Amino acid sequence: MKRIAIFPGSFDPITKGHENILQRALPLFDEIIIAIGKNSNKQSFFSLEQREKWIRQVFKNEANVRVETYTGLTIDFCKKMNAKFILRGLRTSADFEFEKAIAQNNNMMAPEIETVFILPIPELSAINSTIVRDIVRNGGDATPFVPNGIDLKDIKA
Ligand code: ADP
């Protein structure tokens, strides 16, 4: 059976941190589905189309990476995609506490789905999408924080 993982998130926008986690997880799975969550309670900065376009661009040469969007529970989307793994990154102890609760609750609801965590390399652990959005909002240059080739001026915010 194919080992399929879901990498869920907002990716608003994708950063070098996301890219690093995905690249390092690739040898562990046959396929990774990057799943952009459409959360009606959370207003995104970049449009769904824009976020999806950037992710496709970054992983265009990775045959084992797919990009999808979803609504609802991540475990339900995993079942739909036949994925037995959820991939998440852990940057800080705050991330750990937050992720722990979600992973344990997901495990109670769907014990057949395992959450797998990867620690970012130290130089990327301070990067997050919130900071990138703040830089963009204030007219700064966030190029060092996003994957190579992403043009942050190509924005339909
Ligand atoms: P969410 O809103 O679901 O947290 P994000 O797009 O912010 O979505 O993050 C998706 C995943 O990527 C999360 O597991 C997050 O911890 C991880 N992540 C984000 N930035 C980094 C980083 N710099 N290093 C490692 N993991 C990261």
Report on this structure:
This protein has a five-stranded parallel sheet with strand order 3-2-1-4-5, sandwiched between helices. The protein starts with a strand and ends in a 20-residue tail after the last helix. It has a single domain, classed as HUPs (Rossmann fold), CATH 3.40.50.620. The protein is α/β, with parallel strands linked by helices and 157 residues long. The protein contains five helices and five strands. It is 35% helix and 18% strand. Residues 9-11, 15, 17-18, 21, 88-89, 91, 95, 120, 124-125, 127-129 line the site of adenosine-5'-diphosphate.
Characteristics:
about 160 residues, alpha/beta, Rossmann fold, five-stranded parallel beta sheet, 5 strands, globular, binds adenosine-5'-diphosphate
Compile the SSE list and pairings.
Blueprint: E1 4-9, H1 16-25, E2 31-37, H2 48-58, E3 65-70, H3 74-81, E4 85-89, H4 93-109, E5 114-118, H5 129-137
The protein binds adenosine-5'-diphosphate (ADP).
Residues 9-11, 15, 17-18, 21, 88-89, 91, 95, 120, 124-125, 127-129 line the site of adenosine-5'-diphosphate.
CATH homolog superfamily: HUPs
- Biggest sheet details: 5 strands, parallel
| Number of strand elements | 5
Unreliable parts: none
Would you give the CATH topology? Rossmann fold
| Total number of distinct structural domains | 1
Catalogue the ligands: adenosine-5'-diphosphate
How much of the sequence lies in strands comes to 15-25%
